[in-house]
Amino acid sequence: MTLRPRARIHLDHIVDNWRRFCAMRPRRETAAVVKADAYGHGLPKVSEALYDAGCQHFFVAYSFEGLAVRQAVGPHAVIYVLNGPDAYDDVIFRDAALTPVINSDQQFQILVSWIQAGGALPRGYALHFDTGMNRLGLPCSDAGSISEAAAQLPPALIMSHLACADQPEAGLNTTQLDRFHDVSALFPNVPTSLEASDGLFLDERFQSHLARPGICLYGGGRPPSHLSLQAGMTLEAPILQVRACRAHETIGYGASHKLTTDTLVATVALGYADGFPRSASNAGYAMIDGVSCPILGRVSMDLITLNVSAVPHLARPGHFAQFFGTDLPLEDQAERAGTIGYELTAGLTARVRRDYD
User: Fold this and answer.
1) Nearest to 64 by CA among 33, 91, 104, 103
2) Catalytic positions, written as ranges
3) What are phi and psi of 134, to 5 degrees?
4) Cα three-residue angle 117-137-169, rounded to 5 degrees
5) Which residues, including other chains, have CB under 8 Å from residue 109's CB and lie 6 or more apart?
C-alpha cells in the first residue's frame, strides 16, 4: 500500500488518440503538443511513445522543453518552440536543432542576428501571425514587409491560433481563417498550421498542412459525440480512513457541509497541494468501482472526504478512488470544479506519483 495519490499514464491511449487524428486528415501532417510536461503526463515518455508511433512534429513552449523532447526522440523530429527565441538561446536552438516560432519584430531581429553570426538554423524557423487572438503573434498588417525581409531565407512554417475553435458558429473563426489565407498567400509554397485541438473538429476549410492537437491527445476537450477519445491519465487516491457519521454532523473546514442522513465518509489522500482544485469542494466527485461518490466539504491541502455510503463493501483503507480517467471523464470533473481539463492534468504536482502503463 502507498499513501500517495497516483496518476496512471496510458501511453497507448495517447498514441491511439493521435492516430485517430491522423486518420481524420490522411493527406496532411499531425503534430503533438507536449508543452507543460505533456500537459502533466510526462514529456519524455509521451514524446518517445508518439515518435515511435510515427509522429514527426512536436510543439513546446520553451527551449528547455524542446531540448527534453530532442533527448527523448533523437535527431530527426521537428521541434517547434512556441514562445520563440531569447537573445541568449542561440546555442540551445542550434545544438538541439530546435525551430523557433517568431512572434514579434523583436524576435525576428534576434533571428536575423543569429543567422548573421552563425548561419541558418538547422531546422529553420516559423512565423506566427496574430489573426484575432490578440495574444502572441506578428501583426497581419506586417506580413507583406516580413515576406520581403524573409525572401532569401523563407520560413519553414506559417501559423496562427484560433480564439473560438470550441464554438463552431463563432464569426471570429471565419474572420481569422480569411486573414490567415491572406497572410499565407504572401509566403507561397510554405506549409501552414492553423488548427489545434478544437480546430480539428471544424469543417474542412480550416484544415492546414500541419495540425497541432494538444489537450485532445490526452482525452480532454469537447470532441464531437461520434469521436470517442481515450483517457491519457487516470488520477487515483487511496482511502486513509472511513468513519460512520451521524445526520446533522458537519464535514471538514468551515463545517461547509452538513449531513442530512447517517453517512459513511471516507478520507482520501489528495488535496490542493497535489494539484486537485479547491474549487471542487462540495461539487466534485470520485468513482469507486463505477459508483459515484460525491465530495463532502472542502478540498483541503492533503485530504478530501467522500460520501461512500453506496460502496460500503469497498470503503476501506488502501482502496483507491478515481478522480478522473477511464471511469470519470476529465472534462466532467473539470466542469464541476469550474475549470478546464488542461488545469486538472497540467496542475498536478510532483507529490502525485506517475505510473506508466
Assistant:
1) 91
2) 35, 253
3) 55, 50
4) 155
5) none
Task: Show the CA angle centred on residue 181, arms to residues 180 and 184, nearest 5°.
Answer: 80
70-114 per-position pLDDT tens digit: 999 999 999 999 999 999 999 999 999 999 999 999 999 999 999
Question: What does the alpha-carbon distance between residue 79 and residue 77 come to, in Å, rounded to a whole number?
Answer: 6
Cell of 207: 484544415
- Beta strands at 192-193 and 157-159: parallel, antiparallel or unpaired: parallel
Mark the ranges of the chain whose per-residue pLDDT is less than 70.
Answer: 1
Grid cell digits, residue 277: 482544485
Q: Which residue from 310, 286, 275, 281 is spatially nearest to 297, judged by alpha carbons?
A: 281
The three cell numbers locating residue 319: 482502496
- Residue 95: name the closest of 118, 126, 113 by CA: 118
pLDDT in tens, 182-210: 999 999 999 999 999 999 999 999 999 99
Cell output for 288: 469507486
DSSP 273: G
Closest CA to 276 of 335, 345, 225, 212: 345
Q: What is the DSSP letter of 316?
A: S
Q: At what angle do helices 63-73 and 43-53 cross, to 10 degrees?
A: 50
Buried b (16+ CB within 10 A) or exposed e, 33-43: bbbbbbbbbbb
Instruction: Estimate to the nearest angstrom the gap between the alpha carbon of 282 and the chain centroid.
Output: 26
Question: Contact at 8 Å (CB) between 116 and 143?
Answer: no
Max CA pair span of the chain: 77
Q: What does the DSSP 8-state code read for residue 195? A: -
The alpha carbon of residue 183 and the mean position of all alpha carbons in its chain are separated, in whole angstroms, by: 27
Q: For the chain, how many residues are written? A: 357
* Distance of alpha carbon 16 from alpha carbon 55, whole angstroms: 12
Q: What does pTM read for this prediction?
A: 0.96
For residue 21 the three cell numbers come to 487524428
Using only the alpha carbons of the chain, give its radius of gyration: 23
Q: All domains of the chain, ordered by start, with CATH?
A: 31-217 (3.20.20.10), 233-356 (2.40.37.10)
